[in-house]
Amino acid sequence: MRLNTISGRFAALTIMFVILAELFILLPSLASFRLDHLESRLERAQIASLALLATDDSLAADLESELLQNAGVFNVVLRRDDIRQLVLSSPIPGPIAATYDLRSEGILQTIDDALATLFRPQNEVIRVIGAPVNQAGQLIEITMETAPLREAMIDYGLRLLALSAAFSILTAVLLFLAAQRLILAPIRRVISHMSAYASAPEDARHIIIPDAHLAELREAETALEAMQKTVTSSLKQKERMAQLGQAVAKISHDLRNILTTAQIFADRLEDSADPKVRRAAPKLVNSITRAVNLCETTLAFGKAEEPSPTLSRFNLAQLAAEVVEAESLAGEAAGQVDFLTDIPPSLTIRADRDQLYRVLANLVRNARQAIEGTRQSGTIEIGAGESDTDWWIRVGDTGPGLPDKAREYLFQPFTGSARKGGTGLGLTIAADLVRGHGGRLELLRSDGEGSQFCILIPRAMAILPQRHVTAAR
């Protein structure tokens, strides 16, 4: 049994508190023992004095000395009928050090006198006054030594402490055994379940089943069960998502190769002699291009991480114009969506130009597709500015807003898409790219009047080693 265990500390505290309680009991017990001892001397002295009175005050000197010795006193004074009489006497070895009147002592005074007797090692002569038993007089007074009293008190105290220690040890052992069975055994069972679950958290058989009788332990087991079920469910879901991601990545890889070949042939359709074919060729090329981009986006997401941004200074208005131009040419949306930009022409930021292009393209494309889904016209606005700490870019639209499910799972792959058939990878990749710059992508609002996203890129990112910075474009 070690002190750094619950059972060891429980047993040690039990012994300590029991001994502490016994110490509080010891003082009144010693005081009571001293009082009983003195009263016993008074009774013996009274019996000795009655023996003398029964012989008409005539008693041999040796017999008188024997009576005093048996009573453990030096002399006896008895007051009867208001007459104080020295009944028995013998030489006193020294002066009287103190007088104790047992008729008027309270409990606190008794304890104080007991401690004074116990901690005063020298042998002294004291006077003790008390009331005779059976109303055999008004008072009885004796003189006696303190050494026998002190020895008797020490012997009594040691025996009481030994008995207390024995009871303390027995109590501690019983409590230790009870704690082992009622508390520590269920705790060890919980720990065993936790260890087994940690070794294979995906195995539902290792989930604990609450069956503790103690209310607190049962609550802990219930909470542990709920946590383990949640973790197991999440692990299974992540495993399925990982498997699905691998399958999608493989399909996207092969599909990208097929679409790239189709794109090459579609480019040749622009040279066709048939005017209808030439007019349809750009639409076909754009469609195939979007399909290729989707495959490449899926493959990029399947990688462990995006490459670290390569910083360079560039004009943000020019980058936004490129994004708007690319999206303006996108098939069916031409003429249906108006693009507005509110970016200072001289605004220059430091970031990874290609990655930021991807971020803006994803946001603008999502906004365009949302407006396109309403089959009504709409507006997409790109605004930007700077503060003392950040560059900010806002992308807003007048579309239908994000549904509740999309807002709940925003920035999560395969779950946060706002349109039917979408993967939700665009926002996920955009958020990852912005985080790679030390910034964040936030949804400022989304309601029936449209949605607005904000990109925040900290200016402190500009303080980087020279090898990470490329020449300005």
TrEMBL record:
Gene3D superfamilies per record? 1.10.287.130, Histidine kinase-like ATPase, C-terminal domain (3.30.565.10)
The question of whether NAD is a record keyword is answered with no
Membrane spanning stretches? 6-27, 160-179
**Does Membrane appear among the keywords?**
yes
Keyword annotations of the record: ATP-binding, Kinase, Membrane, Nucleotide-binding, Phosphoprotein, Transferase, Transmembrane, Transmembrane helix, Two-component regulatory system
One annotated GO molecular function is: phosphorelay sensor kinase activity
Instruction: State what protein this is by name.
Output: histidine kinase
Q: Which organism is it from?
A: Paracoccus tibetensis
